[in-house]
């Protein structure tokens, strides 16, 4: 890949993407009645700073590979891999160089997040050739892309930002500054009464929401030379040419058709026979801007009895305090209310934050869930809300614990200097758990032997003082040490209640 077409002087953000997890892929396959592959070797193309690939390599028994031609990204990712001893083989090759390597195995799972829309046609062909040649029969793919129709009104804005940067600003100005100035110029257009913006209020609303987003993200989203929006029909043709079959959107909400569609929408979808066209129309219904999909090379359908047998053995754990679960869900196009008499029972069963199988949940529900299908639907909804996580087999957990411990210790060390990585690895679930900077500092204090919220707060405050940082609360900077300590102590008391969850998730060897 030619680096002149890609922003390399600004590092991408430090995001974690659960959809890259083979465990999430396998569960969605099962829920769709598709036999998931046994995953032993996996690969992430364009891994960014390597948060996802390192968490999944540390918290599993899977051998991970990957490449990202951005050298700063690769160096950071490799440092994390070394600190955990997870064995991930991470390269800084272009896609073409990576395809031509002779030391790569074939893979059972290949993932690329935020890549397909931001590379040129040649590299898209190389990526698809890599999948065609290196993905084993039965293997899975995770991919994401910007799509029509939801991104239609952003195309003129992106072109405005890019053209303003290229033609109106000096090359010497840093790209981060250029993005900020581009947003300011857009505001001048609004003030001048530009007709296009007046007739596209949705665009103005989207731009306003983006103003507070991470500037590094905005640079990588909008300022690369290559930026292509496609619709699902285009994408499905590309992936079919690489011998892939569509599995599902990589979202648990997408499995809940009775929840996310109005009756007339569902009736329309049910009238469409062609599966790709049906997916294409889903994007019109939801005005989709960004798709995340799973694909497989050679679908094997499960019988209903086989599917149910495999699903009832799946174990899950409640990953947040029971009282934090919301019974009202805003789906953007409307709100749904969870039945408290049903979900209250389910949350009571899971409230000890210990793994429970689907079959065990049904048994402990004392008749509230008469059929396994009811348990499955409820767990899908809780998965969509990201309040439950699937649990790995015990033999995998025990082997992963040392690697996840070491990786998480390094992430806690990074938290001293900033809020870069807001997720830690769980050996129990094989995935990441969102934990913010302050709680990471509290965890570091606890690992050092501290057991009291006041001590956690003191540890965090000493680090913030060295960094010359103060807490912002409700938009105001807390000025005095007393104010900052009081706020930290309040946070530390809430953290104390979550420690039992973090302990059960096996984020550290001993907590």
Gross morphology = globular
CATH 4th-level superfamily of the largest domain: Vaccinia Virus protein VP39
| Oligomeric status | single chain
- How many structural domains in the coordinates? 4
Strand content bin: 5-15%
CATH class of the largest domain: Alpha Beta
Mean pLDDT: 93
What is the CA-atom radius of gyration, in angstroms?
24 Å
Question: Which range best describes the helical content: under 10%, 10-25%, 25-40%, 40-55%, 55-70% or over 70%?
Answer: 40-55%
CATH-defined architecture of the largest domain: 3-Layer(aba) Sandwich
Counting DSSP H or I runs of 4 or more residues, the number of helices is 22
CATH topology of the largest domain: Rossmann fold
Count of strand segments:
16
User: What structural class do you assign from the helix and strand content?
Assistant: alpha/beta
Q: The biggest beta sheet, please?
A: 7 strands, mixed
Largest sheet, spatial ordering of strands: 3-2-1-4-5-7-6
Low-confidence stretches: 6-10
